[in-house]
Here is the input.
Amino acid sequence: RCLILAVLIPLLGFGLPRFWQLFAPFIVAIIIALPLQRPVRWLERRLHFKRWIAVLLLLFIVYIVIGLFIYWFMSFVVTQAIAALQNAPQWIESLSSLYRGLRGWLAAQFENASDLNRLDSVIKQAITQLSSLASSLAGSLVNSTVNTALSIPGMVIFANFLILGSYFITRDFPMLSQRW
Here is the structure.
């Protein structure tokens, strides 16, 4: 048993991602096809649609809804990112103004200049770290944008296999379910 587990665990660790990479569109297509069986049968029986027309109509509706959701979500994310980048100068100015006000107030509170200088150096270090973090976030945003743009061809291929797979699986589901 230990030998079987010792061989099976690495095999699953290596094989499962490869399996998912190859068959993901078809697995997702099955997940989409299953709940569409009742509406397809309803369109066939009640409205006398041919099965392939009912499948095309329902898949068209499903993929339009999915596409609109993705469009809405992506436009929301892009809008928020653009707004954040446009408001960054005002945020930096607000932080600088807050720092100047805080420094003036602290200067009035501290009688010992060395304590004020030490606090001043801590605040400057925090501002430096915040600016470094902002720069890092901007770089990450650019990298993720480039990576997303580079992954578009893979997404298109995935979508094509998904659409074709969901069409054929939904259309031929009665025959496939009899074979299983």
